[in-house]
Each structure stands twice: as C-alpha cells, then as structure tokens.
C-alpha cells in the first residue's frame, strides 16, 4: 500500500543575499519520511503558486514548520511594531486559510513553532511579539551561539493537562522540551485549547476543540531527533497514523 503524501509548508529565504528560494528543513523531511512513514512534499508558501484547493487535492496531511518570519499582526488585529520582527505575508496568505479548511475537512494538521502560532491565529488567538519582555517569563529564544546540538538542547519542562490528549499521547503529565521562539500566544481563541504550558505559563501545546481530525500544535521543535526522542516520536507517529487513515483526495 502506498504511503500518504504529507505537505510541508516551505519558507522563503535568500541564498547569498540575492537568490530567492523556497526551502524545507531536512529535520522536518526526515521526521515525515522516517517517523510518519509518509512521502514528504514541500509546498511553496505562496498562494499565487499553490492554492488551498491544490494542496487539499494532493496531500493527506500538513506540517506547518517553524520559520524566521512571524505571522503578521494584521492577522490577529494588532498594530505592527518593530518588536514583531520580520514577516512573510505570502506564507500567511497560504498557511492560515489552509489550516482552517484542513481542520474543517478533518485533514490532519501539525503545527510546529511558527506553525503552532499559525494554528492558534487561524482560530482567533492573538500573539505577544516578545514573550521574554513579559514580567516573570523565561527567555524562550534560540541561544545565539553554539552548535546545532546546543541550540536544540532541551531547556524546560512542559506540564500537560492530566486528562488531555497530549498526556495520553506521551504517557506522562510532564515532558522535557527544547525552546527556540520569541513570540507566543497572548489570548487563546475560543476553540484553541491550551493543553500544556511551560513553567512560566507560556502556552506550549494546543489542539482545536471540535476538530473532526488531528489538529494540534506544539511551540517547541519536535523535528529535532524525531526518530529517537521519546516525546517527538509518538507525536509524529500519531500524526502519520492520522494521515495514513485519511488516504484520500479532497
């Protein structure tokens, strides 16, 4: 039986500061191919190149990965400030409607870091531009120096709701994760259930209430060593099972 196709949203960036490309991190590709047991396919994050309907006809699930650029605050009704950093309006233009339509149809969705924030914003949440500026919050940003291993090192615990889907999935009420983000959920939308938090209260795991299919996001980066990590592996395996169970075009 053929493996399901899982779309991974690409990111726009420049090679040598002048040649524009779309790319997907090798960690995400490996997590989909090896742990989800699916065919990874990059979707250019631009609605002028790929429509929501195009994507839905081809893919049995979608990964919305992390990115340097942030969701534009226009998408959640906040004014743009310097603290919001850089943006990718083309990715906003594809990711947010694709998330909404996928969730409505029961097509599996997994949001990681920026993708977690996209899932939250798509269902009415607002974001804070710099979590570390809130009194009592940790600095969740990527360490500026060090090796890849040091940047993705686990740095804090996430406490999960004991009777929630993440605790059931991981078989534990607490998990130890990496953290590489600056922004985070400020106010959760009506259907956005925060099912796990960092020690400082920052939302780290969410799902969409009433979604007919797999619709979850985590603020950390589970794609790092996804095949070996005891938290990452069951997350990608569950997502892969959901995509394999769909195996249909829209």
What's the layout of helices and strands?
Blueprint: E1 5-9, E2 11-15, E3 19-23, H1 26-35, E4 39-43, H2 52-58, E5 61-64, H3 89-105, E6 109-112, H4 114-122, E7 126-128, H5 148-151, E8 156-160, H6 165-170, E9 174-177, E10 184-187, E11 192-197, E12 203-208, E13 215-218, H7 232-246
Helix pairs in contact: 2-3, 3-4
What structural keywords apply?
250 residues; alpha/beta; Rossmann fold; nine-stranded mixed sheet; two-stranded antiparallel sheet; 13 strands
Give an overview in words.
The chain is an alpha/beta fold. The chain has a single domain (5-246), classed as Rossmann fold (3-Layer(aba) Sandwich). The chain is 27% helix and 24% strand. It contains seven helices and 13 strands. The protein has a nine-stranded mixed beta sheet with strand order 4-1-5-6-13-12-11-8-9, with helices on both faces. Strands 2-3 form a two-stranded antiparallel ribbon. The chain has a two-stranded antiparallel ribbon with strand order 7-10. A hairpin with a 5-residue loop joins strand 11 (192-197) and strand 12 (203-208). Helix 2 crosses helix 3 (89-105) and helix 3 packs across helix 4 (114-122). The longest helix has 17 residues, at 89-105. The protein is globular. The model has no long low-confidence stretch (mean pLDDT 93). InterPro entries: Class_I_gatase-like, Peptidase_C26, PuuD-like. Keywords: Glutamine amidotransferase, Transferase. This is Putative glutamine amidotransferase.
């Amino acid at each position: 039986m053929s493996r399901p196709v899982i779309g991974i949203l690409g990111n726009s960036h420049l090679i040598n500061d002048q040649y524009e490309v779309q790319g997907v991190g090798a960690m995400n590709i490996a997590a989909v191919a090896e742990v989800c047991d699916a065919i990874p396919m990059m979707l250019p994050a631009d609605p002028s190149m790929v429509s929501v309907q195009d994507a839905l006809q081809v893919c049995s699930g979608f990964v919305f990965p992390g990115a340097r650029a942030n969701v534009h605050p226009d998408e959640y009704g906040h004014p743009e400030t310097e603290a919001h950093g850089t943006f990718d309006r083309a990715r906003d233009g594809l990711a947010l409607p694709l998330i909404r339509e996928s969730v409505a149809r029961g097509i599996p969705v997994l949001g990681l870091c920026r993708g977690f924030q996209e899932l939250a914003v798509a269902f009415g949440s607002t974001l804070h531009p710099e979590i570390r500026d809130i009194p009592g919050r940790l600095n969740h940003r990527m360490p500026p120096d060090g090796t890849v291993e040091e940047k993705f090192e686990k740095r804090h615990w996430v406490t999960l709701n004991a009777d929630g889907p993440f605790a059931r999935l991981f078989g534990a009420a607490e998990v130890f994760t990496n953290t590489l983000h600056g922004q985070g959920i400020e106010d959760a939308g009506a259907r956005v259930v925060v099912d796990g938090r960092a020690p400082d209260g920052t939302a780290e795991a969410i799902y969409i209430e009433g979604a007919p299919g797999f619709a979850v996001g985590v603020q950390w980066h589970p794609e790092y060593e996804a095949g070996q990590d005891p938290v990452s592996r069951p997350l990608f395996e569950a997502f892969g099972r959901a995509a394999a169970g769909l195996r249909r075009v829209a």
